[in-house]
Amino acid sequence: MTSKDDLELIAVAKRARDRAYAPYSRYAVGAAVRGEDGRIWAGCNIENISFGLTICAERVAMAKMVSEGCRRLEKVVVVTADGSPPCGACLQAIREFARNPAQVTLFLVAESGLAQVCTLAELLPHSFASREVRPVSVP
Ligand SMILES: [Zn+2]
After folding, report:
1. 4 CA to middle of ligand 1, Å?
2. Which fold has domain 4-123?
3. CA 125, CA 85: separation in Å to the nearest integer?
4. Which helix (H) or strand (E) holds 78?
C-alpha cells in the first residue's frame, strides 16, 4: 500500500534518476529519502572515470539529508531499470541513519512499476552495529 506521500517520494526519485551521471555503466539510479522531520532529499548515481570514486544515488541523497540537518530517515525509494535493491554499502549507510531498521521502509521501483516494498531489516538482517564502536552521542 502506497500513500500519497509515498507516491510523492517515488516521483522525486524518478526525477533524480533522470539526472544520473552514468556514462560508463549506463545504469541510471535515482533515490529519495524522507527524513523523520518529513523533508525529502533526492540523489542520483554519479560515476567517475576512476571507478572507485563513483557515488551511489542513495548515499548522495543521504549526504544531502545530513548536510541539511536531518540525521534520521524513515523511508527510502530507489528507482532503477529493474527494481534492484541498494548495494551492500548503501544498506549499511542507510542503517547508520535508521533509528529502527524494522521501521525503515524501502520502495524498490523498476521502470515497469513498483517492484518491492520491504524493510531495511529484511534487506540487511545482520548489519554492523557493534556495541564496541558506539558514537559518543547521536541526537
Ligand atoms: Zn550503493
Report:
1. 26
2. Cytidine Deaminase; domain 2 (3.40.140)
3. 14
4. strand 73-79
Q: Kindly give the distance from the C-alpha atom of residue 100 to the centroid of ligand 1, in angstroms, as a whole number.
A: 20
Separation of CA 139 from chain center: 21
Q: Give the model confidence (pLDDT) of 79-127 as tens digits.
A: 999 999 999 999 999 999 999 999 999 999 999 999 999 999 999 999 9
- Beta-strand pair 40-44/73-79: unpaired
Residue 48 has which C-alpha cell? 567517475
> If we measure between CA atoms, which residue out of 81, 85, 122 comes closest to residue 107?
85
Residue 8 falls in the annotated catalytic set: no
User: How close is the Cα of 66 to the center of ligand 1, in Å?
Assistant: 17
Domain residue ranges in the chain: 4-123
The predicted-structure confidence for 8-67, as pLDDT tens digits, reads as follows 999 999 999 999 999 999 999 999 999 999 999 999 999 999 999 999 999 999 999 999
CA-wise closest residue to 57 among 73, 47, 66, 44: 44
